[in-house]
Amino acid sequence: MPRAKWVVASLTVALLSTTVVVLQRTEGAAPAASTTDDALPSRALGLSGHRRLVRELEQSGESRPGEATRPRRVAAGPLRTVSGPLRAARPLRLRIPSTDVDVPFGGQDEEASWDSAGPAPGAAGTAVVTGTALRLGELRRGRTVEILRTDRRTAVFTVVRVSPGRASEWEEPPGRAQLRVIDGETAVLARLTGHRSSS
Length: 199
Fold this sequence. Notes:
- By secondary structure, the protein is α+β, with helices and mostly antiparallel strands.
- Helices cover 23% and strands 30% of the residues.
- The longest helix has 25 residues, at 3-27.
- Mean pLDDT is 74; it is low at 29-48 and 60-75.
């Protein structure tokens, strides 16, 4: 918009606002419910489409000039307890909320790798996941490990044991859905305790 038109529009708004204030004081009228935007059409201000929306957001305090808009995370579904194993589904991501670990399954570098010869995470049996930089040594009993799967469910496991080494001597009852996560010299055993739906 040319600068001259913007100045004229601004002066018009200021004049209208001053007139309303003077009338309210002299006549004892109740405060006007409409805003200056209502008194002056947006076309007169040269505002339309997304420019008008941005201006309204700035005035309402929802955003400020120069601030980057942060993407909003979609809230996960409620945690549902399970009474038995889930159906088999391929794992997509490994998450450990207490240590801020969130890596994809890919088997390279710092990514997680699932032993596909065994059960899928969340299915009956003990699924084995390995990786590097998973910070398993920082885990404690009662913390959770989450596996996002292709069936749009997130299997939630609760840690029951943390041990140095690969811990192959652990007794693992058949039929129960468990997860063994191995990172370097630390191994974690966790049991399936719930799931969340991402749909």
